[in-house]
Specification:
Elements lengths: L13 E5 L3 H12 L3 E6 L3 H5 L4 E4 L1 H9 L3 H4 L3 E4 L1 E6 L4 E6 L16 E5 H14 L3 E5 L13 E4 L6 H5 L3 E19 L5 E7 L2 E9 L2 E9 H8 L3 H11 L5 E5 L4 E11 L2 E2 L2 E3 L5 E2 L7 H20 L8 H27 L7 H13 L1 H13 L8
Parallel strand pairs: 1-2, 1-9, 2-8, 5-11, 9-17
Antiparallel strand pairs: 3-7, 4-7, 5-6, 10-13, 10-14, 10-15, 11-12, 12-13, 15-18, 16-17
Helix pairs in contact: 1-5, 1-9, 9-10, 11-12
Length: 393
C-alpha cells in the first residue's frame, strides 16, 4: 500500500496567489475547492480587471476545469460554441474541416457537440470575481500596491501575475524569450459569409489569421502580421481599416462594421525555468507564453491550474506532503508546456511563408488531414486536451 503523508496542519493548507486575472482567479478557486485557505492579491482594482476587450477560445480541457469548479453552468450562456473549425491555407487554396465528430466521446458537457467555445473577457471576469468574493476560504485584495501585499508566511505561493510577473522576477527565476517578427492585432467586427457557429484558422504568408464566432454576426479577429504594419492599421479611420481588413480576408468573408477599437501588440515565445523555487510556483503566462495560433494560450494556462488543483487536493487528503507540491507540479507540467510551445512555433514557421521547398510538405499534410479522420481526431485531440493529456495522473 502507498505510504500516506502525515495529516496536513492548517498552516500546511495556506496559499497566496499573485494576480487576479482569469488564470490567477481560477487558481485561487481551485485551491479553495481543494480545502486550502487562500489569499489572492492584485494591484489592479476590479474595474480595471473587467475592462479588457478580448475574447478567449476555450477547448474541452478548459470546459472540464470550469465544470469541476462549478462555474460552467453560470458561464455557458455567455459562451458561443463553434461546431466547425475550418483550417485554410491561403497560399495553396486548400482547406480542411474539423467537426465535433472528430473529437473522442465527451460526456457531462452542456454542449458536447461543440469543437470549442468563444468567451468574452468581461462575463468571464464578472463570474470569477463574484465566485472569489463569495467563497469563505478566499481573502480577495484588489487595488493593493505591491509594497502593501501581505507578507505573512504561507505554505504555497502561486505567481499568476502575467508574462511580466513581478513575483517571478523577485524570485530571480530566469525567463527565455524569443520575439516573433509578427505582431498580433485583435478586433471585434460584424461579419458576413460565415455561419455563426463556425471558426476559421487562415494560414497566410504574413502570419495566421483567426476568425472566431461570438454569436450572430459578431466575430473576434486575431490577425498576425509584421508589427509595424499592424500598428499602422490601428491608426486608420474605421472605413479605411475595414478596407484593409477586407483585402486580408478571403473574398467570401465580408467585414461590415467595427464593434470595438483594434489593438496591436508584439508576440513572443517565452518560457521561465524552473517552474518553481522553494514554496513558489509559476502558473499561466508567468511561466510560459506562446504564439496565439490555434488559440492554445489560455487553455495551456488553465491546464496548469488543473494540475495545481490535482496536487493541492492530494496534500489536503494527506497523500502528499505540502513541501513536495511545487516539485510535483513542475514535473507534471513541463512536457505539456514544451510540446505546445514547440507545436505553435512549428505551425508559424511552416505556414507563415511561401517557401517553395515547404509548399509540398504543407500540401501533403493538408491532404492527409482531409483524407484520414484518424489524423484529424489525433490533431484535434491534441489541440483540445493538450499533447499529453492529464499526464500527472
Amino acid at each position: 500500500m502507498p505510504r500516506r503523508s502525515p495529516a496536513p496542519s492548517a498552516a500546511d493548507l495556506t496559499a497566496r496567489v499573485y494576480g487576479a486575472g482569469p488564470t490567477g482567479a481560477l487558481a485561487a478557486l481551485a485551491l479553495a475547492r481543494s480545502g486550502w485557505q487562500v489569499q489572492i492579491v492584485d494591484p489592479l482594482p476590479a474595474a480595471a480587471l473587467l475592462e479588457r476587450s478580448r475574447a478567449y477560445a476555450l477547448t474541452h480541457s478548459s470546459a472540464d476545469l470550469l465544470l469541476q469548479l462549478d462555474l460552467w453552468a453560470a458561464l455557458a450562456p455567455a459562451c458561443a460554441p463553434f461546431r466547425r473549425l475550418e483550417l485554410c491555407d491561403r497560399s495553396l487554396a486548400q482547406q480542411v474541416s474539423f467537426e465535433a465528430v472528430d473529437l473522442p466521446g465527451r460526456h457531462g458537457r452542456a454542449d458536447a457537440a461543440a469543437v470549442g467555445w468563444i468567451l468574452e473577457h468581461r462575463p468571464l471576469m464578472e463570474q470569477l470575481l463574484a465566485a472569489l468574493q463569495q467563497h469563505p476560504a478566499i481573502a480577495l485584495q484588489l487595488g493593493v500596491p505591491p509594497a502593501s501585499f501581505p507578507t505573512d508566511a504561507v505554505a504555497l505561493e502561486v505567481a499568476a501575475d502575467g508574462h511580466g510577473s513581478p513575483r517571478r522576477q523577485a524570485a530571480r527565476i530566469r525567463q527565455w524569450r524569443r520575439p516573433y517578427r509578427q505582431g498580433c492585432l485583435t478586433v471585434q467586427v460584424g461579419l458576413r459569409g460565415s455561419a455563426s457557429d463556425q471558426a476559421w484558422e487562415l494560414f497566410r504568408a504574413e502570419g495566421p489569421f483567426a476568425v472566431l464566432p461570438l454569436g450572430g454576426e459578431a466575430f473576434q479577429l486575431v490577425w498576425s502580421a509584421p508589427l509595424h504594419k499592424l500598428q499602422q492599421l490601428v491608426r486608420l479611420e474605421p472605413a479605411r481599416f475595414l478596407d484593409a481588413l477586407s483585402a486580408a480576408l478571403p473574398e467570401w468573408l465580408q467585414a461590415e462594421v467595427l464593434l470595438d477599437q483594434p489593438r496591436a501588440f508584439p508576440v513572443a515565445l517565452e518560457l521561465a525555468w524552473p517552474l518553481r523555487r522553494g514554496g513558489l510556483l509559476l502558473v499561466g503566462e508567468a511561466a510560459h507564453r506562446s504564439h496565439p495560433v490555434g488559440g492554445q494560450g489560455l487553455n495551456l494556462c488553465w491546464r496548469d491550474v488543473a494540475a495545481l488543483q490535482h496536487w493541492a487536493a492530494r496534500v489536503a487528503a494527506g497523500r502528499l506532503a505540502a513541501r513536495h507540491l511545487p516539485a510535483r507540479y513542475a514535473r507534471s507540467r513541463w512536457l505539456d508546456i514544451a510540446l505546445v510551445l514547440l507545436a505553435t512555433d512549428a505551425l508559424v514557421w511552416l505556414f507563415s511563408n511561401r517557401q517553395p521547398l515547404l509548399l509540398p510538405l504543407r500540401r501533403l499534410a493538408l491532404l492527409l488531414l482531409a483524407r484520414f479522420r484518424s489524423l484529424r481526431r489525433l490533431s484535434l485531440s491534441a489541440m483540445t486536451d493538450g499533447p499529453c493529456r492529464h499526464r500527472w495522473r
